[in-house]
Amino acid sequence: MAERVALGMIGCGFFAQNHLNAWQDLKPEGVDIVAVCDVDPERARAAAEKFGVPRWYTDAAVMFRAEQLGLVDIATQMQSHLPLVKLALSHGVPTIIQKPFGQDIAEVREMVAAARAQNTFLAVHENFRFQKPLRRIAEIVRSGAIGTPTWARVSFRTGYDIYAGQPYLAEQQRFVLIDLGVHVLDVARVLLGEVEHSTAELQRRNPKARGEDTATMLLRHTSGAVSVVECTYGSRRLPDSFPETLIEVEGDKGAIVSRIGNKVEVTINGRMEVLDEDPAVLPWAERPWHVAQESVLATNRHMLEALRAGRPAATSAEDNLKTFALVEAAYLAAGKVKPQA
Ligand SMILES: NC(=O)c1ccc[n+]([C@@H]2O[C@H](COP(=O)([O-])OP(=O)(O)OC[C@H]3O[C@@H](n4cnc5c(N)ncnc54)[C@H](O)[C@@H]3O)[C@@H](O)[C@H]2O)c1
């Protein structure tokens, strides 16, 4: 039997509820949530009560000194990621950090270097590639069934009121690209491999938002394949696909097209089959979030397995640096950020 993992959770806000539910589901697989921490004492206490966690803290430094953690999961907003990751690594605690990894690439590089110097597990909770339909599409592409992939579209277009659950997004100067673009760019890397050239256009369609709410990217991958990667919180189309990422991939033997409802159409050698990849609605999940919520469980399970096997996660710090570099490149290409001297 593998040793049990004592988990500490930092940040008990909106999205952390999914993490906490998922970790609780992983209790039979050897995870114990031993402590939760939030600077807001009400949130920390409420999470401890709801999930039967023995201890709660309002200061992560105090938590690290008091607890013997085998893993820490950080689900705070990006401005706190660098100091919290450095704190966790200074205690030698394997660490999972929510996306976006950092506020900019300099912070991301600093965290990657710190994990390398400490030789400590650091992974990014990049969950889109763990969504059931996306896992299946990646598997089909990898199997070679559609031949060599030459073109793809990765698309997340919604008019869902994202500001209701995450009001801070309206205030971010770097908005949809760093928040959502980071997910869809990661999926493009998973499907078509690394990128050698990219360009981007950003738009602000909703005056409520301070930053860009729409991003359209065009990538050339090192394989020669090309992808269009797009995301918006400003779409008015119906039916609204929130929170699904819709994919098209074309290869020399076939194609894959996903449709709303987590349906995946696979055409191989001129024959089309429709796969139903709608995930289970977990007891703590609700439609339409269930595809995201099931992916949190799949992501956490992957993290646990990688940690125990002593290997980096698929979305390790080093891997996510490559995705983050695409975000930074898109801001540069769109002229939002002045190049460093
Ligand atoms: N992967 C996804 O699909 C997905 C979806 C939504 C949000 N997110 C990400 O999750 C992260 C959190 O977003 P949210 O909407 O839950 O934010 P939130 O503001 O609701 O929650 C963050 C919590 O962290 C706490 N906090 C802040 N600094 C802290 C510190 N130093 N120590 C302890 N607690 C601290 C806050 O008090 C708050 O309760 C963001 O990075 C966001 O991008 C990811």
TrEMBL record:
It holds the Pfam family GFO_IDH_MocA. Residues 135-256 form the GFO/IDH/MocA-like oxidoreductase domain. Gene3D superfamilies: Dihydrodipicolinate Reductase, domain 2, NAD(P)-binding Rossmann-like Domain. One of its GO terms (molecular function) is nucleotide binding. Residues 7-124 form the Gfo/Idh/MocA-like oxidoreductase N-terminal domain. InterPro entries: Gfo/Idh/MocA-like_OxRdtase_N, Gfo/Idh/MocA_oxidoreduct, GFO_IDH_MocA-like_dom, NAD(P)-bd_dom_sf. This is Oxidoreductase. It comes from Devosia insulae DS-56.
